[in-house]
Amino acid sequence: MENRVAITGIGLVTPLGNDLPTTWDGIVKGRSGIAPIAAFDATPFRTHFGGEVKGFDATKFIDKVEARHMDRYAHFAIVAAEEALRDSGFVVTPENAENVGVLLGVGLGGLQTLEDNHRALLERGAKRMNPFMVPMMIANIAPGIIAIRVGAKGPNYTLTSACASAAHSIGDSAELIKSGVCEAVITGGSEAALTRTGVGGFCAMRALSTRNEEPARASRPFDKGRDGFVIAEGAGLLVLENLENARKRGAHIYAEVVGYGRTCDAHHITAPDPVGDGAARAMKMALRLGRVDPERVGYVNAHGTSTEQGDVAETIALKSVFGDYAKKKLMVSSTKSMTGHTLGAAGGLETAFTALALHHGVLPPTINYEEPDPACDLDYVPNTAREVKIDYAMNNSFGFGGTNVSLVLRRFNGA
């Protein structure tokens, strides 16, 4: 018999706040975390704004010397992981260390470190490159550092699947607990790609919104006026535990992870399948493996990036999975309307928001929803959070390369 998987801790660093309470308050109140970029002069680019983490000082949490030898994405991951552990009350000990894993989803890794060292190489020569460049920029260093800090000696690796990275990480972590390989896993995602190279690259693709005069209104999933996604940064980390162990120690349980679906479109390197075939198959797999009837799902935290093709394809996929129920009762929203798109970290943030929605009975809104798109015709919880108690919810994450992940969560009722 498979072990059940509980979410017992959540840690967040986002454009809405540098911790769980501040971020969740912003989500429930429908605040936008999108603003003009402050870290560098973005005016040479088509897009001048993003979802920047504000007022973040890594040295409040990490020794100043150590912090200098880490990339910003690792700073976010460490702070979120340690908040998640505090929130859960789970303690890594010499007795359980080998059964505690750390799995992280990362899309691009230490992009700022790479950018800084490339500039040093070109402008000042090879001898001016940072000797810590490689361990600072590699995508698997953050889970390694987290493990060192807390003493976790179980599985430790990074999953990289573009914007599905963190969701893959959470799903694989749940599998490790279900199978008995791990007692607990610290998992989720982190990304800090809001750099000149990151913004410039996505601008070159014409993928980003260009609403430079009203950045807070730029991320508008499913709205007819959407014109591209808003690049953002941050981290969302969870503590997953064997449910029975969590109950024995009296842990606070937000929700259970019950279903995990993963597929590929095999269609295009960046564009989604126009009818959402891969996305639909991922959702169906998650429901089937979680033994959940579609009509029992009350809410979907959509991938919902605010791109013209992606939002339509996901809507079509939802209707193919849920049938008439999709238009009659299913509630869907995109929290990217408030946080922007945190790329490889997105599934970490959004799985946390989905668990919190189940736990608190409050569904996050899709803000900036002003003009319905006839091709996007579901209930997107427009502009205002909704108090609804539901038992099951789904989180979707899709990425370049045609990769798709769907996670199904269940509200924990004490049974």
Which secondary structure elements does this structure contain, and how are they paired or packed?
Elements: E1 5-13, H1 20-28, E2 35-36, E3 49-50, H2 64-68, H3 72-88, E4 100-105, H4 111-124, H5 133-137, H6 141-150, E5 156-159, H7 165-178, E6 184-191, H8 196-204, E7 234-242, H9 243-248, E8 255-264, H10 277-289, E9 297-301, H11 308-322, H12 324-328, E10 331-333, H13 336-339, H14 346-360, E11 362-363, E12 386-387, E13 392-399, E14 403-411
Parallel strand pairs: 4-5, 4-6, 9-10, 9-13
Antiparallel strand pairs: 1-7, 1-8, 2-3, 6-7, 8-14, 11-12, 13-14
Helix pairs in contact: 3-6, 7-14, 10-11
Distance between the termini: 17 Å
Q: How many H/I helical runs?
A: 14
| Overall pLDDT | 97
Alpha carbon gyration radius: 20 Å
Q: How do the helices and strands follow one another from N- to C-terminus? A: EHEEHHEHHHEHEHEHEHEHHEHHEEEE
Strand order of the largest sheet: 5-4-6-7-1-8-14-13-9-10
Structural class designation: alpha/beta
Q: Work out the strand percent.
A: 15-25%
Task: Tell me the helix content.
Answer: 25-40%
